[in-house]
Amino acid sequence: MSLLDHLAILPVVLPLVVGIVLIVLRNAPRALQRGVAVAATLALLPLALALIQATGDGTHLVYKLGNWEAPYGIVLVADRLAAWMLLTTALLAVFALLYALTAPVPQPSPQTGEGANAGPTPTYDRDGRHFHVLFQLQLFGLNGAFLTGDLFNLFVFFEILLLASYGLMLHGGGRQRVKAGLHYVVINLVGSTLFLFAVGTLYGVTGTLNMADLAVKLAATPPHNAALVQSAALLLFGVFALKAALLPLTLWLPAAYAQTSAPVAALFAIMTKVGAYSILRVYSLIAGEAAGPLTGLLDAWLVPLALATLALGMAGAMASTSLRQQTAWLVVASIGTLLVAFGLGSADALAAGLYYLPHSTFATAALFLLADSIARGRGEFADRFESGPAMPRARLVGGLFFAVAVAVAGLPPLSGFLGKFMLLQAALESPWMPWVWPVVLATGLLGVVALARSGSLLFYRTHTAHAELPAPANAALAPVVGLLALIVGLVLAAGPLSDFTAATAAQLTAPQHYIDAVLGGAR
Amino acid sequence: MEALIALVIGVLTAGGVFLALRGQTFPVVLGLTLLSYAVNLFLFIMGRLAIGVPPVISESAAGYTDPLPQALVLTAIVISFGMTAFVIVLALKARAELGNDHVDGVQLGEDRQA
To answer: ipTM of this model?
Structure first.
């Protein structure tokens, strides 16, 4: 056995081991803790690239834990989709961590109450205990959720990433954050309970939880159990929709994302995508063409709900009173766009969605990070949409805001435009076309208007500052520039990347290969 | 037996949903706990009800019960136990930070008596 045989499990094990090591190192010098955390996060990049390389020819890397044959043992499955999600997560995590290490925490204002004054410039990872541990465990949960081939394991990894996210979200404390965090935790606990009900029902009917085996067994469901598996599958969809913040289960997101600290909000940009990923993964397997009573289960639901989510997200962005809140609503809108693509279900639409996924993740994360710098530069006005003092280095920050806003709104020349263009093109063949085109185009316009309004309020309608305002540090702006560079990279490499997403979509629309790869040994 | 178990799960779930929708954090935590009891029981009986049969191979066994739901429910119990502990601590912190135990941190007259 070479190390390469274990490639599929390394992105899961590495953050777990490092997270535990960091607990042990909690009293070690801070530089050591930071070094270990950064090295571990950076190491995920070559692992993800190696997985892209290994799965690029269409193979499914099936890793049998303990060498138990599927469906009796638990499997991890790496295919193009999993590798793509891992790479997106790893890139995002690097920049979120960089920001947490370098950017100073805003000084406590009267509303937020307590704050840490540990040193001259406290950074986010010093604003409370165990930031790096939670960060690594969050990555552990995310990577595990993307790689697992077992429905119950998906639940376990969901719980891990949620528990880490509870800790991260509340990191630093503060009144508003605790209040938003309480709602976030409670709604996700209810979601977890529903997940278990759905999993239990599926197990009770089919006697398996391996996703590939489940696909086979569900396709052969006897008619008297059809209603039971349909309700379980829809319950599961409800859970994933909650994680993805699909309407009508959206409203927890804006408060939670707007109140947490900037690097955590940036990392959370991938969290809603976990829900979208799960919908894509599970329903491409169990509700495909030959899925018996589940065929086309979501057809009637996903596209209308996603379009409504997109519309609501943009309406929320229009109505927001602060930049962080607006960004949170833009996350909702981006998940709407993504799920429209996944809901259309054709190979072209899936390819468009998968190309749009890293773009929207990086763009919203960049906006969260930039909003934090802007809030610090405006003193007591923070990121509220009020005419405030002119911030120091407004040209640089404003220029970055312009670039990020272009990316988020999906205007050319950045990759959001390409993603939406591919989506609209794919929608041409769909019966949903008369709905998709107007909603996507109109919300695109709303997004431009909302961001233009924020930009002009924050940067043009200013008056002279009375007090000395802190200038945004280069270190705090560097991760934003880095994320923008990734978005530019998505445009420059659009050809090969869209080929890859098209191949991924082709793989997803032919789930039989996945099933054969996992169950190959058992037949 | 099936009817009794189904009734127990139903009552637990209904009580859990009702309490989880209350305005104070303490009933909400209790509601989440009841919901997790309900789902644990539900998972457990998904291996079908069987009395006096072993889950692991034995020579004298006449039949077997499904061992997998027992393993699943063990995992689910551990997770829900940890989550309940976390949410209690969070509720206490919210009580300290917000000054009252309402989930929204506001004080509403009629809700106080619940």
So the answer is: 0.90
Residue identified by tokens 């919908």 is A279
Q: How far apart are CA B89 and CA B65, in angstroms?
A: 38
Single out the residue of A104, A142, A292, A139 nearest to residue A205, CA to CA: A292
Predicted confidence (pLDDT) per residue in A329-378, tens digit: 999 999 999 999 999 988 999 999 999 999 999 999 999 999 988 888 88
Determine the longest span between alpha carbons in chain A, in angstroms.
Answer: 76
The residue in chain B having the minimum alpha-carbon distance to the alpha carbon of residue A114 is B97
- Point out the residues of chain A with pLDDT beneath 70: 1-2, 106-121, 289-291, 465-466, 521-523
Beta carbons within 8 Å of A471's beta carbon, 6+ residues apart: A377, A392, A393
User: What is the pLDDT, as a whole number, of residue A110?
Assistant: 41
Radius of gyration of chain B (CA): 19
Structure tokens at A214: 């489940």
Q: For A201-246, write each residue's pLDDT tens digit.
A: 999 998 889 999 988 888 888 888 888 988 999 999 999 999 999 9
- Give the Cα separation of A69 and A519 in Å (integer): 8
Residue showing tokens 């709602």: A183
What global pTM score does this model have?
A: 0.91
Q: Are A407 and A447 in contact (CB under 8 A)?
A: no
Contact A203 B46 (CB under 8 A): yes
Please check whether residue A304 touches B, CB under 8 A. Answer: no
CA atoms within 13 Å, Cβ hemisphere of A503: 17
List of residues 6+ apart from A457 with CB closer than 8 A: A385, A386, A387
How many Å is the maximal CA-CA distance in chain B?
66
* Alpha-carbon distances of A444 from A310, A315, A352, B40, rounded to whole Å: 10, 11, 16, 45
Give the 3-state secondary structure percentages of chain B, helix then strand then coil, rounded to 5. Answer: 65, 0, 30
Mutation for testing the B interface, residue in A182, A201, A206, A260 having most B CBs under 10 Å: A182
Whose CA is closest to A142, among A128, A161, A125?
A161
As a dihedral over the C-alpha atoms of residue A394, residue A397, residue A402, residue A407, rounded to 10 degrees, the angle is: -170
Whether A462 contacts chain B with CB within 8 A:
no
Choose the mutation target among B18, B90, B104 for the interface with A, i.e. most A CBs under 10 Å. Answer: B90
Give residues with Cβ within 8 angstroms of A166, minimum separation 6: A181, A184, A185, A188, B86, B90
**For A189, which of B32, B43, B104 is closest by C-beta distance?**
B32
Angstrom distance (rounded) from CA A366 to CA A357: 14
Q: Give CA A54 to chain center in angstroms.
A: 23
Is A182's CB within 8 Å of B69's CB?
Answer: no
pLDDT at residue A185, as a whole number: 92
Distances (CA, A) of A86 to A67, A141, A301: 24, 11, 28
Amino acid B73: pLDDT: 92
